[in-house]
Design brief:
single chain, alpha+beta, four-stranded antiparallel β-sheet, 79 residues
Length: 79
């Protein structure tokens, strides 16, 4: 199933433990915020990601889809 790439920006710098709550996502630390990006395969997955942020007490300062086109799964090497 394909999905879309999303980027969430949260206030502050996440601890190692909080970053570990997003194993399938890329977590980049910036000076005053943390950028969490990755794929959500459907609306349910997207809501789950936002619920996880809420359960961790994170303040989401921005949220957007990174690309307009769906992310296609990579095909296994046929070589």
């Amino acid at each position: 199933m394909s999905g879309y790439r999303y980027e969430l920006r949260v206030a502050g710098r996440l601890s190692d433990r909080a970053r570990g709550a997003f194993p399938a996502m890329t977590v980049d630390i910036a000076p005053t915020e943390t950028v969490i990006s990755g794929e959500a395969v459907d609306e349910s997955g997207l809501h789950g990601l936002l619920a996880l942020c809420r359960s961790l007490g994170l303040e989401v300062t921005s949220f957007h889809r990174v690309v307009a086109d769906p992310v296609e799964p990579t095909a296994p090497d046929q070589g």
